[in-house]
Amino acid sequence: QVQLVESGGGLVQAGDSLRLSCVASGRTFSSRAMAWFRQAPGKEREFVAAISWNGRSTIYADSVKGRFTISRDNAKNTVYLQMNSLKPEDTAVYSCVASARLYYSPTADSRDYDYWGQGTQVTVSS
To answer: Hey, is 16 helix, strand or coil?
Structure first.
């Protein structure tokens, strides 16, 4: 089992930056791909970014490419999402997820992730 706890959300202005953190329990964190998804009110959940188990491979949604950076520290069982140049349309609940399989490549498909955190709210005002 993997438990995930996100932090770092908040209320910021357009153009500001935030860094989200997600701490995982369990000994298999370093073997799992990790990702961030987000969901805005009234909208479907969407993929944001994902990273391979060893941190060597990352993928991003087109809407955040060049502004967001996903990274991980396996020694700390933590994955991060650095968000720069935030826009009002980035407002959403951001959830950290862990892949179902070990040593798997990161994907943008939510069905590949079995473990979900409770989410952290990010609000960007214009």
So the answer is: coil
pLDDT class of 26 with cuts at 50, 70, 90: confident
Q: Of 58, 10, 9, 16, which is closest to residue 33 (Cα–Cα)?
A: 58
> How many angstroms separate the CA atoms of 11 and 69, rounded?
19
Q: How far is CA 38 from CA 31, 74, 75, in A?
A: 23, 23, 26
**Residue 115 pLDDT > 90, yes or no?**
yes
- Which residues touch 121 (CB under 8 Å, ≥6 apart)? 9, 10, 92, 93, 94
In this prediction, residue 103 has a pLDDT band, given cuts at 50, 70 and 90, of very high
SS3 of residue 108 by DSSP:
coil
Local structure of residue 43 (DSSP, 8 states): S
Q: pLDDT-derived band of residue 74, with 50, 70 and 90 as boundaries? A: very high
Mean pLDDT rounded to a whole number for the chain: 96
Q: How far is CA 68 from CA 90, 92, 104, 115, in A?
A: 11, 14, 22, 22
